[in-house]
Structures
1.
Amino acid sequence: MPRSNKLALADEYIELEKFLHVYSTCIWKIPEDDVHHPTNVGRRRVAEFGVAKALPELERTIDDVLEEANDWPSEAVKSYDKLMRQYGIVTLSEVRRTRSSRFKQILAAGLISNEGDYHMVESIATECAHSLSERERDHLRLLLTSFDQAG
């Protein structure tokens, strides 16, 4: 694997690991020094198998986090995003925007079908505005407006 790809994988792993570390510690209340803390498990996997083989396992855990957070109310997401920004870590909204299969399904369907999805799209539109293109912001606003008018 070329060096630039290895660095990109390492950067992705580090970013997701930091996110999972705070989530595991603050939300799941797993003590940082616990051998079963996902960060500690992941570091053992990296040491044993390398980043390229450990990353898919980390990604599956992140997918579980996203699934768990699907039903969070907007205020909880905003509060958690604020915490993550204080740590200088990627926010839940940003991880949802880039990794959530549910968010991708909503975009593909062009339809928000329930309150949980509405809150997810709303938090992404609000919290990720700086990383969205104008076209993406317009699309999310249209989805939100359509749901509001249908309700």
2.
Amino acid sequence: MMTLKYHNDPAGALAYVGKRLSGRNDGNGLTGEPVWFGDGAERLGLHGAVKMEAIEALCGNRHPSEGWTLVPPEWKADAMPLLTELVVSSVRLPAVDLDEDRWFTERHREAAGVIADLLEAYAGADLGSVGFFRVTGNVVGMRFDRCCIRMGAGRLSTHFVLFNLTFDKAEDGWSGLDTSEMELALSDMADEYAYVMRHHRGLLSLLEALASGGAVCLGSPANPSPFGLN
């Protein structure tokens, strides 16, 4: 499941990120350590764990270490939101399975990595009233995992938080982030996530059966093989 959220209010956006950086259980789950991701973040020298000082600088349209203005005022469209958040959630599992199933957590994180790559592929420059989309292929983002367990069932989710920034090579400078193509591609990204989860589950079952010396069923017309072998 994928959910797109927007954080429009600067004070609210900073409060939201601050809560996530605290790592505390807010009643809705435990939050892992937020880390930077995206080629845009790399370009700004942002690596590893997220710090609040850098968040405040980015939300203020400033370089996180050097302090200069990122998006020139004459380029800056009135683009909202300040932050765009994509939440990628797994299916719900019994809490004991979620805790012990190393396969599941690894596959979820692998599938979330595919989504991170797609977010960059769909990134574009906010050209304001020009009226067309220009691909930039980079984002400035942070990501973190959450584990929520309620009434004996649990769910893993990965949160991608994108700042309203992307480097536009055509202008050799920073621009606001156009997320319109990401929004249109949500169903495609959901399919990619599901494919990774299904493919590896099927492959794991096949390898385990072979390793145990058991018979391997490659499927039937009623139950086709996940590998397209029947």
